[in-house]
Predict the 3D structure of the following.
Amino acid sequence: MAEATSTAVQPRKRQRRVGEVVSAKMDKTIVVKVTRRIQHPLYKRVVQMRKKFYAHDEHNQCREGDWVRIEETRPLSKLKRWRLVEVLEKARA
């Protein structure tokens, strides 16, 4: 009898990002701007790259200006592939 080999697929570690909430006008959705600094490949100067992510905010707890941590998840809508993990810093009123 052939020996069964264990081919269990390990779940992938989900990516996490930290960014600033730039919009919280939608219901249960926030837009998070993530900024990262990279060295330009040709000019060797440090430049900032920005990207916006749509994230799921189940309890509508975020406001513009909050700093949050988001995590990759399954597709929740046409644009949402991230979810809110925690609010790191609330915006000053």
